[in-house]
Amino acid sequence: MRRASAPAKPPPGQPLPESHVWLTLRTLFPYLWRYRLRVVLALSCLVGAKLATVGVPMVFKEMIDGLTPGSQALALPALLLLLYGALRFASALFTELRELLFARVTQRAVRQAALEVFAHLHTLSLRFHLERQTGGVSRDIERGSRSISSLISYTLYSILPTLIEIGLVLAVLFVKYDAGFVLITVISLTAYIVLTVKISNWRIDIRRQVNDSDSAANTRAVDSLLNYETVKYFNNEAWEAARYDEQLLRWEEAATRSQKTLAYLNLAQQAIIALGVTAMMWRAAAGVVDGRMSIGDLVLVNAFLLQLYMPLNFLGIVYREIRQALTDIERMFNLLKEHREIADAPDARDLPAGPLDIEFAAVDFAYEAERPILQDVGFRVPAGRTVAVVGHSGAGKSTLSRLLFRFYDIGGGAIRIGGHDLRQLKQASLRAAIGIVPQDTVLFNDSIFYNIQYGRPSASRDEVIAAARQARLHDFVAALPQGYETRVGERGLKLSGGEKQRVAIARALLKQPPILIFDEATSALDSATERAIQAEIERVARGHTTLIIAHRLSTVMNADEILVMADGCIIERGHHAGLLAANGSYARMWRLQQQEAGG
Questions:
Q1: Torsion, Cα of 76, 81, 85, 90 (10° steps)
Q2: How far apart are CA 85 and CA 56, in angstroms?
Q3: Could you report the per-residue pLDDT of 470-520, keeping only the tens digit for each?
Q4: Exposure of 233 by Cβ count < 10 A (0-12 exposed, 13-18 middle, 19+ buried)?
Q5: What is the 8-class DSSP label of residue 485?
Q6: Whether the model pTM is above 0.70
Q7: Across the strands, what pairs with 416?
């Protein structure tokens, strides 16, 4: 089933399409509008702060004019001085109130968006997670979450205040002086903004290249570090460093190009600002010489210019950061558009409680259409009984467990549990009924206790220890200096293969499901531990519907039925003794394994 594709990137040198921008903003808007009252109050404080900010130089102008030589009236400048201080404080007060009102909105929006993306990733199919690059995805979430905060911050604290201030200043210049000041200001601002937008849009593709190179380098580093032992086995440290440096070199080239184009943009912006300021001050100075304007007016125009152009110095940076933030947010939200290959049917129901049997009915399945894995597979595991599936590697045995968990949907036939087709059941209730000990046990980088309790997070400490005893793990853990609080390392690398497998067995037993699956559960254990745990498996399997997938035939001798698979088909079935007597594939596998064990 095809996943929804992300919007195509623009060609090099082209800006991010407006449809992308508005789509990203539209996706982000609901996270903010949930707190509409705080948003409205924060915007009101923003307007109040800017009114006070624009009022400050106007009061300062009146103070200067009131202090002309020979003036004896000091009362008015004194009152103006008090008003000047009050307006400056009001500007700071409204600014901080805006911050207080909006802080919760920003952080909650970041939290909820990141949580939604994280939860969605867990709903995607196993196929997506096998194909994804973990380092790149984690970077997309990290940058996207950070960019939501940046976008809100830049918009509320830089763009909107500057736009409001520009509007107020233009209104004052038009009312108090003449349209010439307004015209010079508008021309300067327009030239500055157009230049900034055009060049920044052109630089978007360069920034994308920087991000892509950064994600690729991070992915390569994470992949190498996760496979630390393999790197050491083959003495490939230099090879890994060279591969990592290859990605870093691409990042370096893109980042250098980004910095160079930024320098050109800054020079062009400063040239426009210099011309605008010179023209404004020339006109104001001419007005003072002609007697049309006072010294206070000259100071007022200069103060307005400083208030306008100082934010403009940062407006280019802010615009670039906003565009970059939108790009990063787009990448994160594109993860939400990844199609859920396996989804609950609209009328899906919970799996009823009670004894459960498993039935595969003429099941066909392929990961890729051209490479079939299972062909017309049919068998039944009666409730409370044990069925084993054996065969050589690649026969399709482990695929059975993945299909039972509905990590994939089958191509033909049906899989039923308790008489209910898996596709008509809610996935959560289905998986709650199955406990598994997988062939490749991967543990969380946490304590042994946490990894066992993960099977049922609500379990008490005594229940966790009891499960560890059942898996013959307790004595080993008790002998450790930190006991159950011993950390297992990344992917459980601090434990041996057998120890990890026993943690997995304890975790599955703690879950207490009606159905148990053991997928090569004892493959990493020594013979003595294997026999001990095999006895425990047989004991806990009583009363459970159990499917055992195994390569070693000695571990399945007591199963109620044994299925032999080859090339995705069941070629033999029966009890251990009967299969030996039939002298077929099972008997040949048995003799071969006995010879290996004896040798």
A1: 30
A2: 8
A3: 888 898 899 989 999 998 887 677 888 778 888 888 888 888 888 999 888
A4: exposed
A5: G
A6: no
A7: 359, 421
